[in-house]
């Protein structure tokens, strides 16, 4: 055993030695002695980077072609072992073999780094660099995690933090679909502008570095939105004493409360009217937090005062939305039926159908001529109205046949019909258009734009005039009848096809 007084100068020597070695190591590392021919030729061992995993045992070789006097290892700038001073090892995981190899047992990720072996022999002092890279499977953290609720219009930022060696690559997935941007770097954020409820779903951050399993962290995004109200029917046809069901379907997140209003006033619920709700099966697995509820207002025995406009008003924390439904005893709008019978050149047979809970008293048939190939475009025709008495029927359905006489041959007409019962007039039917000599059922006018070049500005003004005329007659038509700039052109072509056999 050495005495304390003897230890002191000895220890000083070690420190000085370490210090010199440290400076030396640093300088030599900078000079890249691994490529220094004279230096490396003396080594039998070759510079190695050992890729390893946590808890493994690693050996770094250090052998010369000639015997050595002593060997020292240091890591970056920390001395590890020295063959002359077996008492200095600080970590029991690290040991020096007699042949110069360094052994690191139970490797930790902190052991990653450069290791330098210095050997002293008869031919001088040489250094070799090795490295240990402890590979660590990726780990990933996401913020926020689990669940996040965002409103439409919000900007949602998700931050993903991935750790691992080598540096993991981060990829984002939205409902299982990989987003195009992916990059390395241990922190990455995904910014989503919440524009629609369809953006709801699973957001995943996937980190992989080729070591072990890929790591996934996720957050589930719930999009909160204004109630969406849809009415199963816009008009409910009923009669006094009958039971009426008014329905609206409300989808919302968070769930909405629904109140019914009649002519702007809350509906008094009780013996006369009651409201029910039933949850509709949510069939979208990702949307399970959205609830779709059918709300029904039941009027048990309809009175006159119960008729009119109803509002289904749904509200949640985001806002209020409404849908409207009318309860009425009026007849349903009439529907023209295609009449396959042969038509004469001055008359036309029209057939229409309607349904009414109360007896229909009369019909009002409106018709007018519309421009055709041999009628000037400036032609202005007013609607001609005819009152047609209703025939009694045993059921609720009324089918009426009426022949218009005294029409211009080979001309175009349009017609609309309304029905009246003791409750009032029905809405207008859709417009039917026909040519004398044959009825023409027209398709949609969605091709208007394609036909527009056939029309000059003048024609357009002409159309506007026609339109205001129609409005002054306080008629409302479906199927784009009055704004059909291209409609006439379409009519011409249809008409020509129809007329050619007539002319010949
Ligand atoms: C290493 O050992 C520790 C302690 O036994 C253990 O928790 C860890 O999972 C091990 N690492 C690997 C990669 O096996
Ligand atoms: C050094 O010695 C150890 C222990 O005997 C042995 O496992 C290792 O292979 C030797 N290394 C070289 C380069 O000979
Ligand atoms: C859910 O949707 C699938 C198809 O999209 C359908 O086959 C199934 O019947 C639906 N289930 C319910 C309860 O609506
Ligand atoms: C349209 O032309 C046909 C055949 O040329 C003719 O019989 C008919 O009277 C014309 N209509 C008008 C409104 O001039
Ligand atoms: C069409 O109706 C308007 C207003 O109702 C009237 O001023 C005009 O004279 C009518 N035109 C024809 C040709 O009857
Ligand atoms: C006609 O137009 C309506 C409304 O624009 C549309 O819903 C319908 O599908 C169209 N029908 C055809 C046959 O294009």
Automatic annotation (TrEMBL):
Q: Supply the alphabetized keyword list.
A: Immunoglobulin domain, Signal
**Pfam families reported for this sequence:** fn3, Ig_3
Q: Which residues form the Fibronectin type-III domain?
A: 332-439
Q: State if Signal is listed as a keyword.
A: yes
- Limits of the Ig-like domain: 41-133, 138-218, 227-328
Q: Which InterPro entries match?
A: Cell_Adh-Cytoskel_Orgn (IPR050958), FN3_dom (IPR003961), FN3_sf (IPR036116), Ig-like_dom (IPR007110), Ig-like_dom_sf (IPR036179), Ig-like_fold (IPR013783), Ig_sub (IPR003599), Ig_sub2 (IPR003598)
From the UniProt annotation, give the residues forming the signal peptide: 1-29
The UniProt entry, under PROSITE patterns, shows: FN3, IG_LIKE
Matching entries from PANTHER family are given as: CONTACTIN 5, GH03113P
Protein's recorded name: Neurotrimin
Q: Which organism is it from?
A: Drosophila rhopaloa
């Amino acid at each position: 055993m050495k005495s304390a007084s003897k230890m002191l100068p000895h220890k000083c020597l070690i420190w000085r030695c370490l210090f010199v070695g440290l400076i030396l190591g640093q300088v030599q590392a900078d000079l890249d002695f691994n490529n220094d021919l004279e230096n490396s030729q003396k080594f039998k061992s070759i510079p190695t980077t050992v890729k390893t995993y946590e808890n493994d045992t690693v050996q770094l070789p250090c052998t010369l072609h000639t015997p050595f006097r002593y060997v020292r290892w240091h890591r970056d700038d920390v001395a590890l072992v020295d063959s002359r001073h077996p008492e200095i090892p600080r970590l029991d995981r690290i040991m020096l073999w007699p042949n110069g190899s360094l052994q690191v047992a139970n490797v930790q990720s902190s052991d990653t780094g450069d290791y330098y072996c210095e050997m002293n022999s008869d031919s001088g002092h040489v250094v070799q660099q090795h490295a240990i890279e402890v590979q660590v499977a990726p780990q990933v953290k996401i913020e926020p995690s689990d669940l996040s609720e965002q409103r439409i219009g919000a900007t949602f930022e998700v931050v993903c933090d991935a750790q691992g060696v080598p540096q993991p690559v981060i990829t984002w997935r939205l409902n299982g679909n990989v987003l195009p941007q992916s990059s390395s770097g241990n922190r990455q954020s995904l910014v989503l502008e919440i524009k629609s409820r369809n953006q709801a779903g699973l957001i995943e951050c996937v980190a992989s570095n080729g070591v072990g399993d890929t790591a996934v962290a996720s957050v589930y995004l719930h999009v909160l939105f204004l109630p969406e109200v849809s009415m199963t029917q816009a008009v409910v046809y009923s009669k006094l004493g009958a039971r009426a069901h008014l329905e609206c379907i409300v989808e919302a997140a968070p769930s909405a409360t629904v109140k019914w209003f009649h002519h702007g006033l809350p509906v008094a619920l009780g013996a006369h009217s009651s409201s029910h709700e039933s949850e509709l099966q949510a069939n979208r697995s990702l949307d399970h937090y959205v609830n779709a509820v059918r709300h029904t207002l039941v009027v048990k025995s309809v009175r006159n005062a119960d008729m009119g406009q109803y509002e289904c008003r749904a509200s949640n924390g985001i806002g209020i939305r409404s849908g409207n439904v009318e309860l009425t005893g009026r007849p349903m709008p009439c529907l023209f039926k295609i009449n396959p019978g042969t038509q004469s050149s001055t008359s036309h047979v029209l057939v229409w159908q309607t349904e009414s809970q109360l007896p229909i008293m009369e019909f009002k048939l409106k018709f007018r001529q519309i421009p055709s190939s041999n009628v000037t475009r400036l032609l202005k025709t007013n609607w001609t109205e005819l009152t047609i008495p209703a025939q009694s029927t045993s059921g609720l359905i009324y089918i009426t046949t009426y022949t218009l006489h005294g029409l211009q041959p080979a001309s175009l007409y349009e017609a609309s019909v309304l029905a009246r019962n003791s409750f009032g007039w029905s809405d207008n039917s859709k417009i039917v258009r026909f040519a004398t000599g044959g009825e023409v059922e027209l398709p949609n006018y969605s091709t208007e734009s394609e036909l527009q070049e056939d029309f000059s500005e003048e024609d357009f003004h002409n159309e506007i005039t026609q339109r205001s005329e129609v409005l002054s007659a306080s008629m409302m038509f479906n199927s784009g009848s009055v704004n059909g700039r291209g409609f006439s052109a379409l009519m011409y072509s249809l008409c020509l096809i129809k007329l050619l056999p007539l002319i010949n």
